[in-house]
Design a protein that fits this description.
alpha+beta, 3 strands
């Protein structure tokens, strides 16, 4: 399986695997895999109460990050996401797929540069906080996320 951005005009279906056991915990879809991986690995993006957010906070809090794996590149994101979700048991997904998360970045919708600026700012704050707490794992994750955002 590959990592990175899918070929133009398409998207990809990805899985988040447990860094310790390798089991698939979540299946999602995206048109920009690198950005989506960064968002999942950003502690500031995982403040919600959804099961995936709680799991990600736990993993990131241990100084680890989930394994991001592209399962398939496709032009039929909705149907293929549903297919892949059906292939795994015990996922943290809240739905059968295809719905997305309509609440994400509502205030910044249509303003991609504002979103990027906001997320970079959050990562800089995360680095400072991690340093103040002596949490090198969290600092490394925030630095990684900031590096990806700047790429």
């Amino acid at each position: 399986m590959s990592r990175g951005r899918p070929s133009s005009g398409s998207g990809c279906i990805y899985a988040l695997r447990d860094p310790d056991g390798g089991g698939v915990k979540y299946v999602g879809l995206t048109k920009n895999a690198r950005r989506r991986e960064w968002m999942h690995c950003s502690l500031s993006n995982n403040t919600g109460s959804r099961r995936i957010n709680i799991w990600l906070r736990h993993v990131l809090g241990q100084g680890k990050k989930p394994v991001f794996e592209i399962l398939e590149e496709t032009d039929d994101l909705v149907e293929r996401e549903r297919y892949w979700i059906s292939q795994f048991d015990g996922l943290l997904n809240m739905t059968e797929g295809g719905q997305g998360n309509p609440a994400s970045f509502t205030a910044l919708r249509g303003k991609p540069m504002a979103r990027v600026h906001f997320l970079k700012k959050q990562m800089r704050h995360g680095i400072a906080f991690a340093k103040s707490q002596g949490n090198v794992g969290l600092e490394a994750v925030c630095r990684f996320a900031l590096e990806v955002a700047n790429a």
